[in-house]
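Hi support team,

I'm filing this because I wasn't sure whether my run with zinc ion finished correctly. The job status page said complete, but I'd like someone to confirm that the output block is well-formed before I use it downstream. Pasting the exact inputs I used:
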Amino acid sequence: VAHPMIAPSILSADFARLADEAAAVADAHWLHVDVMDAHFVPNLTLGLPVVQSLLKATDIPLDCHLMIEDPGRWAPPYAEAGAHNVTFHVEATENPVAVARDIRAAGAKAGLSVKPGTPLEPYLEILKEFDTLLVMSVEPGFGGQSFIPDVLDKVRAIRRLVDAGELTLLVEIDGGINADTIEAAAEAGVDCFVAGSAVYGADDPGEAVRKLRERAAH
Ligand code: DX5
Ligand code: ZN
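And here is everything the job wrote out:
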């Protein structure tokens, strides 16, 4: 990809210093915000009040990744609050198209996320309702896990459709992205790379973002 986008995940940041942690990656494309409800995934993070505060604390567009049940009920308020992207999981709802339309009507970009084991074939027809496809390359729930390379087949398949002009969609990858794994993801056709521990585990998060971007641009 010519212009790789890096989205640092604040899941690996210091939650007591989120404004500073955002400032440390000021030239990131998006700031990735993992919302977990302890039901869809076995972990609990943050919700709408924290997102509302973050929106006031940073100019970086927020990429909200909702790992929650019942996104039809909970997703639109993130769009109304001013999140740039609101992404939810296809496994969490019976009616992803209705949720996408509500998100877009509320003024945000709509994203669809798939767990590593979820195939894309059943959803190809609905992807036109979305602005981004977030391919999970670890099981959602925790930072610091190892990249699952098999998911790159899904990335390649969608890349082909986008390059053929059959779809307009940004392809985003999330989980285990670091200096060693980002090149394979970039080669498969990823546009946007989420990185948590590789950014906030580094001594200089801003420098880590720049290094990842350079690697992806190879
Ligand atoms: C995991 C989250 C990821 C997480 C990635 O469920 O969706 O965004 O922060 O962390 P790393 O980059 O450490 O795998
Ligand atoms: Zn995420």
